[in-house]
């Protein structure tokens, strides 16, 4: 289904739940927070 591809292309980047900064999903342990917020 091409519609599925379009759906994922339109997904916004993951954002930090604390500061709203875009998160690169490199590690599953990031959860909903960016690297900076995750260190605290
Ligand atoms: Zn953050």
TrEMBL record:
Pfam families: YhfH
Domain of life: Bacteria
UniProt xrefs under InterPro entries: YhfH-like (IPR025432)
Protein name per Swiss-Prot or TrEMBL: YhfH family protein
Source organism (scientific name): Planococcus lenghuensis
């Amino acid at each position: 289904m091409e519609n599925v591809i379009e759906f994922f292309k339109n997904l916004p980047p993951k954002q930090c739940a604390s500061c709203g900064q875009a998160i690169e999903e490199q590690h599953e342990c990031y959860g909903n927070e960016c690297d900076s917020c995750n260190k605290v």
